[in-house]
Amino acid sequence: MCKKDIDYILNCPVKNAAYPVFSREEAENAMRFHSGIPGYEPTPLAHLGRLAKVWGLDDIYVKDESYRFGLNAFKVLGGSYAVANILCERLGKKLTDIDFSYLVSAEVREQLGDMTFITATDGNHGRGIAWAAEKLKQNAVVYMPKGSAAARVKSIESHGATVHVTDLNYDDAVRLANDEADKNGWFMIQDTSWEGYEKIPNWIMQGYMTMVLEAFQEMATVKPTHIFIQAGVGALAGAVQGLLVEYYGDDAPVVVVVEPRKAACLYRSAEAGDGQPHAVTGDLETIMAGLACGEPNPIGWDILKQSASCFVSVEDYLAANGMRILSCPVLGDDRIIAGESGPIGIGVLDLIMNDAEYQELKEALKLNSDSTVLMFNTEGNTDPVNFREIVWYGKYLKPKP
Ligand SMILES: Cc1ncc(COP(=O)(O)O)c(C=O)c1O
To answer: Fewer CB within 10 Å of terminal CB in the chain, N or C?
Structure first.
């Protein structure tokens, strides 16, 4: 359905889907590994119960990844888990038999010698790889798309990585990094997959499940009826969807996948209706830099096309609204500092619950006073200059008709 602010496609999830790579046991393995990293703490689950009532819902929870390891985003969970698995493979060990302190030991460093990890990123994933390489006393090389924010470049460099800001979009920067990896014998650690490159993205997606499992555990007996999850390539959304199928079984929540309009490759793939992933090309221009990806991750897409309930492509101002809503909560609710890619679920939920034009979608998704919505604020203010422009000075308001 094509509308002014958002486009959406409803999908009918298949019954009895199973995703063994994203099982509860795999999530527990990832969580066990992450919990051994010094400084690990589950990130908070913010509660917006009063906002929920204002919007006619039962409850809203937001998992706040701005607290993740002091890195301001969830992404490190994936990169660190992939890097750890690579090291274990080289060491001939099982990850379940070792812990983080062993991987960073002088003995392991000596055994492995010099290694270089390379990746392309719009910010958060690269910071995670740089952070992991720094901890392991190894090297990281990071390629970024054109227009990358200075603060995001700096935060990656602060972990000792070499950063190249290219004049390419995200997907072309990935190809360039992959060529460099082949040329130099470096380890390509990418959060998307292609034919012949699946093992590492699978590990990355498994690493994300620590965040999802934490959220489900923090909710304890409260079961979400709806999950809004934002997508770039769809690795995160695939991991969320994959785990909840097993975790909640027949009672699995409705999953709504949200993307920026100019980079809505999963929406485009759902629209094509042939089951294949379809790319969006061009500049992928959006304020949601972490979601500015034009080519779906085929692993994520295969899960989402079977099990997600709705694909939504949205205008940028809704992300800015989400940032404003979270940073200025209803009295008594928790406050959340969200970067541009973190709060789009809230921006979209506001529209669906409060704009009569979206009544049909609200009803189709069964969003009502019995609904408990879970979202993931996947980043804090990773571009503080833009954060203030948006939250303090009202940049990116809804365009006047
Ligand atoms: C903050 C943030 N949220 C969400 C995503 C989306 O993840 P994915 O590309 O796996 O869809 C990203 C990706 O970089 C991100 O940085």
So the answer is: C
